[in-house]
Structure formats: C-alpha cells, structure tokens
Amino acid sequence: MTIYRQTLLLVLFSLWVVLVASHGKKKNMGVTYDGRSLVVNGKRELLFSGSNHYPSSTPDFNFEGNYDLVKFIKLIDEMGMYATLRLGPFIQAEWNFGGLPYWLKEVNNITFRTDNAPFKYHMKKFTKMIIKKMKDDKFFASQGGPIILAQIENEYNSIQRAFKESGTEYVQWAGNMAVGMKTGVPWVMCKQKDAPDPVINTCNGRNCGDTFTGPNRPNKPSLWTENWTAQFKRFGDPPSMRAAKDLAYSVARFFSKNGTLANYYMYHGGTNFGRTSSSFVTTRYYDEAPLDEFGMQKDPKWGHLRDLHVALRLCKKALLWGSTSVEKLGDEQEARIYQNPGSHVCAAFLCNNATRTPATVTFRGKEYYLPQHSIRILPDCKTVVYNTQNVVSQHNVRNFRKSKNANKDRKWVMSRDVIPTIGDCHVKEQSTMELFNQTNDTSDYLWYTTRVDLDDDDLPMRIDILPVLQVHNLGHSMHAFVNGEYIGWAHGNHIEKTFTF
Ligand SMILES: *[C@@H]1O[C@H](CO)[C@@H](O)[C@H](O)[C@H]1NC(C)=O
Ligand SMILES: *[C@@H]1O[C@H](CO)[C@@H](O)[C@H](O)[C@H]1NC(C)=O
Ligand SMILES: *[C@@H]1O[C@H](CO)[C@@H](O)[C@H](O)[C@H]1NC(C)=O
Ligand SMILES: *[C@@H]1O[C@H](CO)[C@@H](O)[C@H](O)[C@H]1NC(C)=O
Ligand SMILES: *[C@@H]1O[C@H](CO)[C@@H](O)[C@H](O)[C@H]1NC(C)=O
Ligand SMILES: CC(=O)N[C@H]1CO[C@H](CO)[C@@H](O)[C@@H]1O
C-alpha cells in the first residue's frame, strides 16, 4: 500500500486531435513549444485532454494488486492517445495525504514542500525513479512514446506565501530539478506564475479564458491543466452540477484567447476504494464528469463537449497559425478573430459575455443572434458551426439494475471489537496522541481510553443533572463508551471540523 501511494500519478490522456496525430508513422522529434502551442514532432497542436486517476477507475480499468502505471501508459499508447504525466509527488487529488506516503512524515527534520533538504532529497529520488521507469519503456515522445508533457508539484502557490523566501527557492529548485531529468518533453507547473524557464506556467480554474494572466514569457503557450467539470463532493454537500453550456463557454473562451490545450478535471470520475480518499470526501468521486463513476457517458455533457472539440478542430489552422485581433460588437459583445493575412484562413468567436441578456450583433456585414453568456464559433468567419448555449446532444438517464453476477458470492463478515480498558492500552500519555501517527495511516480508527474515578462527592446531588464528558480532539468523529456501555456519537463536517459531544 505504501509503495503504491508513493507511485500514484495523475495521468491525463488527450483525446480527439491526438487520435489523428498518432495514427501516422511515428517520428521521434520530441516535444517543444512556442508562444502558440506545444510543438509535437515538429508540428503545433491543439490538444483536448481529460484527467483520470486510474486507481479510482472501474474494475476493468483497475490494475488491482499492482497498480501498474507502466501498463496504463502502454494502454494509452495503444489507443493512439497522448499522456501528460503529472507526477507531483504532492498531487492533492482528494487522496490520503495528497499522495505522499505516511513514512515521509517520520523522516528526521522534514518539512514538506519547501526549501528543506530531507524533503528535497526524497522528492528528487521519487522523481528520478518515475522518470527512469518511463524512459526504460521509451514512453516519452522524444523516444517515440505517448508522453508529451510532464508536471512537477501541484498548485503550490496556494501555500507558497506561508514559506516566504523558502517557498520561492523551492519553486525554482523544483523546476530546475525536473528540467535536469532530460526527458525531451516540456515541463509545466500549474498555478505557478514564477515557474522558472523553461517550465511553462499553466492555468487551473473554472474560467481560464478570463482569469489566466497568461504565460510568464511570450515564447510559452497558454495551457489549461485543470478545469473542473463539476466539483468533487464531500459528505453533506448538496448535489453539484456544472452545466454543459457553462463548461463549453469557458473552453471556447479560452481557445478564443490563445489557448491551445485544455484538460478536463475530471474527465472520468471514479470510486474511492478502501481508504483512498481525503477527509470528508465521498466514496463516489466526480460522478458528474463526462464519463461517470462507471465509465459511462454522461450526456449532454459528453456530447456537447465532443461537438465543441470538433468545432475547434475546424478552426485549427487559424488558431495555430493565424494572427489575433479583437473587434468590439457591443458593450458586452466582441469578436475574437484569428486570420492569416493574404489567405482565406480565418476563424471567429462571437462572444456575448452578458449573463442575462441576448444580443443581436453585426459581424462582417451579417447579423448574428447571440444568446446570453454564449459563444458562436465560425471556422470560416462566416458560418456558425457551434453555439455553446445550444445543446443538440441528447440527454440521457442512468438506471441501475441488480447484478446477479456481482451479488452471487457476496459474503458478509462481522467482527466484534473488544472495548478496551485502560490496562489494555499500548501507549500511555498525558494528552491524546495523534491518530495518524499512532496508526501509521493503516486505519481510521483508534481507541482512546481514560479512567476517571468519582466518589459520591463528585456526583451531582440532583439526579436530573448529569455528569458531562468533554472530549477535545481534532478527529472527525467519535463513538463514546462509559463503563463498557455505548453512550453515543458525534462528528464534524468539512466546514465545521470541531464538535462538542
Ligand atoms: C535535525 O536538526 C537538528 C537541529 O537543527 C540537528 O541537530 C540534527 O543533526 C538534524 N538531524 C538530521 C538527521 O538531519
Ligand atoms: C494572444 O497572443 C498575441 C501574440 O501572439 C498577443 O498579441 C495577444 O495579446 C494575446 N491575446 C491574449 C488574450 O492573451
Ligand atoms: C465577463 O463578465 C464577467 C462577469 O460577469 C467579468 O468578470 C469579465 O471580466 C467579463 N469579461 C469581459 C471580456 O467582458
Ligand atoms: C509519532 O510521532 C512522534 C513525534 O513526531 C515520533 O517520535 C514517533 O515515532 C511517531 N510514532 C510512530 C508510531 O511513528
Ligand atoms: C508504525 O510504524 C512504527 C515504526 O515504523 C512501528 O514501530 C509501529 O509498530 C507501526 N504501527 C502500526 C500500528 O503499524
Ligand atoms: C483544481 C482547480 O483549479 N480548481 C478550480 C476550479 O475553478 C474554481 C473556480 O474558479 C476554483 O475555485 C478552483 O480552485
């Protein structure tokens, strides 16, 4: 288990364009980039990509027993897709301890994710090990394999300030360390404005078309490494949906503003098996993604995005080689145009940013009706092939039936816990010890026992006033027993973590 966590990678695979690109004869010119896009085997590319945490996938995709990353990358290659290797080692990913193994916490003098020698030692060792595994099987595009991009760290900027200069040092160190691995493919750092050259700083977010401040050098492309297709759920959360229309708007907007790669997070949801989850996160992980927990299409999201990708691909030449301009069409309406002067290559995005009101605009002598919060895509600057607000893809519903097969040999097992007395406790301390530390992250349960001797003077005189047991701890939930008798339970939630019992 520990070894597995250590090698958990977030693998993203790209769809569509990629299928075409890799069906030709393989060249291994590797991957570079310019101010427009990634340059794969010598050619600029538009890339559509979807995140998948393969260990959370349905059983026919679950390499149980070995969690075989190598096998997974091979499969991606066989399917004619590319991969982005986001190797962390801290990956967040709503996973125990963000993917870091428990033992790392016990390393002498370690401080995670900052300019700290023990942490850097282990981070480098891990990165080297993964890169070697990938190189041994010739998985990098520079070796003829499917990996076209790699990521070090993850959204570090959310904690960077707490570490002051040491945080800044660490970012530089991490970027340089990764580049030093010589993979022949570019590295990215997401949400990291100060990513050191030649590492590309990329956007994570819901509306990168409007929120991304852009690459930190003109010779780096605009890439979107995480865009929520919904939101992961925590126990007690209301249902979370992100409408297909809204998602399509954001992606179209990003591509209308120099974007050339978008990765959906998640594209395929999954299941948190066993204890593989972070606190309060539900077992069902990202079921609202275009491919649900079971790998089935969720429509219209899946179809509406497919149609969007087709429309964007029709604009490929203009997007990758055209020069950009903007034409104001109204207060909140604009056209974003990619055009090659002196050629017929031209693509336009007609955008209505008003959230409530539709508008009719005139573009190059023709009238266009733009629903509220919508983008129309015109791959020849004349013909509308796609409108983010106009969902033509069918809605589907999912039904569940009991599976005879799955329920055939089911065996239920019951076990009985012995309620320990103080004499049974292995560790005796004056204050409660940390659970994570005591169990080495092998269990979420731990008995804490204390003994309080009361004599008659301690007990209230009136029988309607009961003694109060107060437990101060940072655990998530508690079952309480007094004199071997169950007296009740209490728990916190992700917003209000503490509770009083
Ligand atoms: C840990 O830090 C202390 C105090 O800075 C130092 O004395 C000790 O040698 C360090 N231990 C290791 C294993 O680096
Ligand atoms: C897109 O890139 C061009 C240069 O290639 C630049 O002039 C323009 O400002 C960029 N647009 C946005 C929205 O970043
Ligand atoms: C579009 O509207 C949003 C909020 O309604 C605003 O934050 C954003 O700046 C607007 N973008 C443009 C290009 O007008
Ligand atoms: C728990 O943490 C303490 C202090 O950091 C350490 O000395 C001890 O070895 C840890 N316990 C286990 C079981 O690892
Ligand atoms: C946790 O790890 C420590 C040190 O490796 C070991 O002594 C202890 O027995 C382990 N405890 C559990 C509950 O696995
Ligand atoms: C993972 C990630 O970047 N998530 C972002 C998705 O978009 C929302 C809204 O912009 C952000 O709050 C999340 O951080």
From TrEMBL:
Residues 334-391 form the Beta-galactosidase beta-sandwich domain. GO terms for molecular function: beta-galactosidase activity. SUPFAM superfamilies: (Trans)glycosidases, Galactose-binding domain-like. It comes from the Eukaryota. The keyword Hydrolase applies. Keywords: Glycosidase, Hydrolase, Signal. It is an enzyme of class 3 (hydrolase). Residues 1-22 form the signal peptide. Its EC number is 3.2.1.23. Gene3D superfamilies: Glycosidases. GO terms for biological process: carbohydrate metabolic process. Belongs to the glycosyl hydrolase 35 family. It catalyses: Hydrolysis of terminal non-reducing beta-D-galactose residues in beta-D-galactosides. This is beta-galactosidase. Pfam families: GHD, Glyco_hydro_35. InterPro entries: Galactose-bd-like_sf, GH, GHD, Gly_Hdrlase_35_cat, Glyco_hydro_35_CS, Glycoside_Hdrlase_35.
